[in-house]
Design a protein that fits this description.
Pfam families: Imm32. The chain is an alpha+beta fold. It has one helix spanning 41-54, and strands at 26-30, 35-39, 64-67, 74-75, 79-82. A hairpin with a 4-residue loop joins strand 1 (26-30) and strand 2.
């Protein structure tokens, strides 16, 4: 099965642009030894799109997506996805 995910083009003058699939649900929990991310199909697709947006060549290292607890995600902690060199 092939699943195509459209990713917004990065535009330096506008910064990152993100889109969420309708009905997304993302739950994050963390302990001392592990982080658990649970999501429905819309949530997983949305996270994949965010990661692909960060992975674009034009996006500079250190750029990040900050998913806030009890806003974008159900969690007691925030989830930060950051692009690094390499």
């Amino acid at each position: 099965m092939e699943h195509v995910i459209s990713t917004p083009d990065y535009r330096p003058d506008e910064g990152l642009r993100f889109s969420w699939d309708e009905g997304f649900e993302i739950f994050v929990s963390a302990t001392q030894s592990e982080v658990l991310i649970r999501a429905n199909r819309a949530g997983l697709t949305s996270l994949a799109r965010h990661l692909m947006t960060l992975a674009q060549e034009e996006v500079t290292n250190g750029t990040h997506v900050h998913l806030t607890a009890d806003q974008e995600i159900e969690s007691e902690v925030d989830l930060i996805l950051e692009k690094m060199a390499g």
